[in-house]
Amino acid sequence: MSQDPYDDELPQPAWKGLPMPEDARSIGLDRNTVEGAWLELASNLDRRKRSHLVVAVLLLAVFLLPVLSQLSYLIDLL
Q: Residue 71's domain spans which residues?
């Protein structure tokens, strides 16, 4: 790596993880986009590890709670 202070080259991670699925790459997702980072995180979880299972449940809750709250709000309007 060069010592140039204006060098924008980012250091490569030591662990690359699983490759991004082809369909995700075809729509422009990679580990440097927000959606791609979420996708990579979720795809690297191992269901045999309890801590990964907890993370998966928390991710599911984070994404579903706003949808369910909006849905209950819309049902109340009817």
A: 22-77
Query: Nearest Cα to 43, choosing from 59, 20, 15, 16?
Result: 20
Residue 7 lies in a domain: no
Task: State the DSSP string of 2-26.
Answer: ---TT--PPPPPS---SPPPHHHHH
pLDDT band at 29 (very low <50, low <70, confident <90, very high): confident
Residue-wise pLDDT for 33-51, tens only, equals 888 888 888 888 898 999 9
Which one-letter amino acid corresponds to residue 42? A
Look at residue 1 and tell me whether its pLDDT is greater than 60: no
- How many other β-carbons are positioned within 10 Å of the β-carbon of residue 53? 13
Residues in the chain: 78
